[in-house]
User: Fold Pyruvate dehydrogenase E1 component subunit alpha from Acetobacter indonesiensis.
Amino acid sequence: MEAGTNNAQTTGSNGPSLTREQFLQAYQDMVLIRRFEEKAGQLYGMGLIGGFCHLYIGQEAVVVGIQMALKDGDKIITSYRDHGQMLAAGMTARGVMAELTGRATGYSHGKGGSMHMFSREKNFYGGHGIVGAQVALGIGLAFANKYRGTDEVSIAYFGDGAANQGQVYESFNLAALHKLPCIFVIENNLYGMGTSIERASASHELWRNGEPWGVPGRRVDGMDIAAVHEAAEEAVAHCRAGKGPYLLEMMTYRYRGHSMSDPAKYRKREEVDAVRKTRDPIEHVKQILLDSGVDEASLRSIENDVKAVVNDSAEFAQTSPEPDPAELYTDVLLEA
Ligand SMILES: Cc1ncc(C[n+]2csc(CCOP(=O)(O)OP(=O)(O)O)c2C)c(N)n1
Ligand SMILES: [Mg+2]
Assistant:
């Protein structure tokens, strides 16, 4: 199986379904995530980030394409590979970087770190370290949307490694039974830590996993922003119309190790290089923009702006104070 495999079930884009302005915005958002993650990797190497840290590099088109199909009030929940989701949801680079470095100005006041950040304002509900647990919480968020009589949807992201967890199937059942507006997004990057999906899953067609409960599913080329966006629009329309949950399997790839300590023995360097060279989601958008007449200078200017935002976030984080020990027991619970 390959990232963005184009087989019979994979939906790729049939030409640009986004406007040039949307592609430009997507480019900026994706470059922000990539540069931010590179900087986080650097700060980790310098000992400024403690604990776990899972980078999202390579998977940027998934969150950015989905976010473009959402509106204010829609809710997002994900796993520990969460920095991309936060930035796509509109959380600030400063607040996320400060949290990564354990500072009082971070989203969890420096007490949550990489895996435990939240923003009620941006409807981002974490950041969860227990594999698969966020899926059951995600249908709870969808239940709240329905109970309150809104047409808001909830997005529950999880990985290929989480996809065969029992609670994921329990969530499919409850979501289908109660017609909950939940979009299940499997980010299939082909590996759970160091185990390939080929070795861990009897089914390699995860988009079909909701079939017993009648949950419609689609496999999508997750390296193609337009394909992601188009599929997300369809899933969102389905949920907003009260038709119940929807499952999207995004074929994607992570370039870096599972976390910051990764033996890198479970895949060949050539495999990673090949995806980088031929399937990179940012290069893909860049090419579309260049082909549509946008000049290199405009793209460079976007890149420079992003670099400034990321550098500023690192500076802000490093000059922010650590939390006061008196805050140890505050912010443990929040009325939702
Ligand atoms: C319940 C549980 N079991 C095991 C782990 C250890 N663990 C952390 S991440 C991971 C792999 C998950 O892979 P996947 O769902 O594909 O997500 P990805 O890391 O690829 O984004 C495992 C087994 C855990 N955190 N929680
Ligand atoms: Mg995975």
User: Anything to note?
Assistant: The chain has one domain: 20-319. The radius of gyration is 19 Å. The beta strands are 10-11, 75-77, 154-159, 182-188, 191-192, 195-196, 217-221, 246-251. The longest strand covers residues 182-188.
